[in-house]
Amino acid sequence: MLTDHTTLVQFLIEERRRHPDASGDLNGLILDVALACKAIAKRVAAGALGGVLGSSENTNVQGEVQQKLDVVANDYFLRATEWGGHVAGMVSEELEEPYPLPVEYPRGKYLLMFDPLDGSSNIDVNVSVGSIFSIVMAASPGADPEPQDFLQPGSRQVCAGYAIYGPSTMLVLSVGTGVHAFTLDPNLGEFILTRQSIQIPETTKEFAINASNQRFWEPAVQRYVQECLAGRSGPRQKDFNMRWVASLVAETHRILTRGGVFLYPRDSREPVKPGRLRLLYEANPVAFLIEQAGGAASTGRKRVLDVVPSELHQRVSLIFGAREEVSRIEEYHEESYELTPTLPLYGTRGLFRTAAG
Ligand SMILES: O=P(O)(O)OC[C@H]1O[C@](O)(COP(=O)(O)O)[C@@H](O)[C@@H]1O
Ligand SMILES: [Mg+2]
Ligand SMILES: [Mg+2]
């Protein structure tokens, strides 16, 4: 029986009771991830005193300058999870190739994919950041995985979650039985269950989008945002509020807490990149959590969890949150196809049509 004082360990034991054959590896891996998140939380909280503010000398595979904390957080994830025999392999936002497990450690049956520090542009301004993770089964348990083994659609995730390092540190996760939130008790060093079975309201009056990209958006997104901005006197007949934290974890947490809809849509800035966010370790885990909480997650054209990945660091258009809003945005995409089937930018064989949807 779960109560408001249940610890993460107790919660995981309770979940395992539903699967009498379970080996305990998934729980072991989740606890290792939770340990990494606690270590990162400490460094984030120390701020300038922890010596991790500012940029490092390096750029990552995405061509982005790594913050010092990106590097430190990546290291905590690797160190906490590589040794336990639960994982067969890992993919990180910060590493071009899958991480090769040291030879001395046993290979497990899960693959772990993570963004060790999300929203890094917020670190130096002391705004919430987080970590995101996704777990799938390895194709060959006990052996080193091939890179393509990581390219599984998000619907195959067995667990997804994030930690948010805000005024309090929270771990929010799902093992496929709803979404549950744990708050870190700083005295005990334990994650304590503080919200069970989170549900997102079907509708909302709050949206999130980086409006500085407006000139690059497709017609469907232009229309949706214009209608929100028109407020009570427009077709939506209600006033909307807008928020943008520039940290996917923080936006997801807000939507899981009070509802809303988030868009980081495909745009024409760099046509080869269908969106900004990374499929394997940003969009997929968020989409899994959102669906588990009764919301929806779409590329605008299809369900995110159905996208079959083709590359480890693939980017994707991501629209998620209140179910009614997401289906409205999908309809607008549908309609703009019907209206502009022959335009080179938006037609079936145009610039914006890719396998990723
Ligand atoms: O700078 P922009 O375009 O607003 O992008 C913000 C987005 O970039 C991200 O920060 C990317 O994450 P990283 O910090 O892990 O690279 C998302 O969390 C966020 O939604
Ligand atoms: Mg990120
Ligand atoms: Mg990151």
TrEMBL record:
Enzyme class: hydrolase
Catalytic activity line of the entry: beta-D-fructose 1,6-bisphosphate + H2O = beta-D-fructose 6-phosphate + phosphate
Any one Gene Ontology BP term: fructose 1,6-bisphosphate metabolic process
Pfam families registered for this protein in UniProt: FBPase, FBPase_C
InterPro entries the UniProt entry points to: FBPase_C_dom (IPR044015), FBPase_class-1 (IPR000146), FBPase_N (IPR033391), FBPtase (IPR028343), Fructose_bisphosphatase_AS (IPR020548)
GO molecular function, one term: metal ion binding
Keyword presence, Hydrolase: yes
Domain Fructose-1-6-bisphosphatase class I N-terminal: 7-195
Cofactor: Mg(2+)
CDD domains: FBPase
Pathway membership: Carbohydrate biosynthesis; Calvin cycle
GO cellular component terms attached to this protein's record: cytosol
Domain Fructose-1-6-bisphosphatase class 1 C-terminal intervals: 200-333
Entry's EC annotation: 3.1.3.11
This protein's UniProt keywords: Carbohydrate metabolism, Cytoplasm, Hydrolase, Magnesium, Metal-binding
Family indicated by similarity: Belongs to the FBPase class 1 family.
UniProt cross-references to PANTHER family, sorted A to Z: FRUCTOSE-1,6-BISPHOSPHATASE-RELATED, SEDOHEPTULOSE-1,7-BISPHOSPHATASE, CHLOROPLASTIC
Protein known as: fructose-bisphosphatase
Originating organism: Populus alba x Populus x berolinensis
Lineage, opening ranks: Eukaryota, Viridiplantae, Streptophyta, Embryophyta, Tracheophyta
